[in-house]
Amino acid sequence: MADARNIINHRKPSRFPTRRQVLAGTFGFGALAALARIGSGTSFAEETTATDTTVTTTATTNATAATGTLPIPDLLTATDDGGVSVFALETQAGTNTTLISGKTITTAGFNSTFLGPTIQVTDGQAVRFDITNTLDDETTVHWHGLHIAPSEDGGPQNIIEAGGTWSPATTINQGEACTLWYHPHGLGTTAEQVSLGLAGMLIVDDGSAANAALPTAYGADDIPLIMQSTSVSSAGSFAATNAAFTASGATLKFLVNGMSATDETPTLSVAYSRVRLRLLNASLTDSITVALSDGGAFTQVASDAALLPEPLSITSLRISPGERAEIVLEPSGTVTLRATVRNTTNGTRYTVSMLEVSSTGTDTPDALPDTLNTITDLDTTDATTRTFTLSNSGASMLINGIAATTMDIMDANAIMTTLDAVEKWTITNASTNIYHNFHLHDVPFQVVSVAGATPTGANLGWRDTIEVAPGTSVVIKMQFTDYADNEYMYMLHCHNVVHEDDGMMLGLMVMS
Ligand code: C2O
Ligand code: CU
Ligand code: CU
User: How far apart are CA 479 and CA 444, in angstroms?
Assistant: First the structure.
């Protein structure tokens, strides 16, 4: 079995920034084009840590901002190829000249020059993704959270060369209604490529009555919110490292579906009484805590990987990088969602009004179902146990003491399991002040404990990404069903993508 690792293609990661000539100079979503206000220039100090240096950066707030309409990513229409739904994606390079007046910012997107369309699929649907890479550099496209064979998963072994294409195919086999996303997943290039705007949402419908009882009209009462805490350098590039994030002259921008909430609060008017918001933290490193500006309660219906067992009434929701959550609001009049953005050492960068939601609905929706999902507890009596320690040595980010920055290191340290194995993992954050999180490809996991305590709230549902506070552990359990491959690996890693690029990632082989 060990031999299998040696079959893996060895790819040398290449640096990203593309010099490809500029395509259409739009920002992807038309509504953004009109926006171009610079923030007020409040200063703040970044916390000192091993990786975050203390510098003064231009922070912007939108306390006095005007409002503009929230852009909503297009829903990608599939074409039919003999019963297979084919979704065509093309990576495109571009620029943005409106986000910061006087700066030309290098961007990239799928089928646009920033972010990508939303892909909606249903359990049992045969799909293919035809991906063309028009960038000057290689990329990959990973389906974060999708239960899919490792050869189609879009990790570092699925390189799409510059000018090349890749056509992964699968039958959707999720068994859960969930909000997933897609993004590049090369070795050492993820932060840079995601920072440019290569990210999009992937929505899975499981056909369940519970999902149907929630708002499901995309763009009408079912709304994607791709949140990005970004920083733009004085030279006009999105930061892809901690140092660049807070470098002198950098400007922080909080983007919602590509629109700068820092400059103007996005508005959303819905014609229904109830609205479902699918929140994705697509930031490289920052956690985002979402709350209503009046401190009122709202309802969480899903975490990362599935609907929660039952609706959860909450007043704030912390979402670490890569995580998703679905919430439901029934706004009477207008409500404002605020986001508090924190860096990797939990220092608050800023708070921003990220969305103003108003409803003109006169409909009277049924009460939410008491039960949204039934989760059968995995039996771990015969489970293999493993431990994963996330740590740092200065700025180098380690998992089990390893910085896996090359395919050779990935091969030599791959975790080997077998099809249908049930496993129980302890994930420990051994860093003293740096927050990490843990993301597993292939299958979602159940949470056994968080810092020694029985899980509560959103941790009662399936997850694929979970935050691990410094000096604490989480215990999770999972079963590696359906897909095995003796050549292709899944990945497990911290989803602070700067840490991931620094090597806080291991391969996982599910052997038949
Ligand atoms: Cu969102 Cu391994 O990735
Ligand atoms: Cu993933
Ligand atoms: Cu980390």
Answer: 8
Alpha carbons 224 and 200: distance in angstroms, whole number: 10
Q: How far is the CA of 334 from the centre of ligand 2 (A)?
A: 35
Q: Output 18 or 491, whichever has higher pLDDT.
A: 491
Ligand 2 center to residue 60 CA distance, Å?
31
Helices (H), 97-204: 190-196
Domains and CATH numbers, the chain: 3-208 (2.60.40.420), 222-359 (2.60.40.420), 384-511 (2.60.40.420)
- Burial of 282 (C-beta count, 10 Å sphere; 0-12/13-18/19+): buried
Residue 467 vs residues 115, 306, 319, 429: alpha-carbon distances, Å: 25, 17, 8, 10
Query: From the alpha carbon of 493, which atom of ligand 1 is closest?
Result: 2
Q: Residue 37 pLDDT > 50, yes or no? A: no
Distances (CA, A) of 6 to 144, 414, 457, 501: 25, 11, 42, 22
Strand runs labelled E in 187-250? 200-205, 222-232
Closest CA to 442 of 461, 421, 456, 467: 421
Residue 130, classed as helix, strand or coil, is strand
Q: How confident is the model at residue 26 (pLDDT cuts 50, 70, 90)?
A: very low
Q: What is the pTM of this model?
A: 0.89
Fill in the amino acid letter for 163.
G
Distance 440 CA to ligand 2 centre (A): 6
Mean pLDDT of 186-191: 96
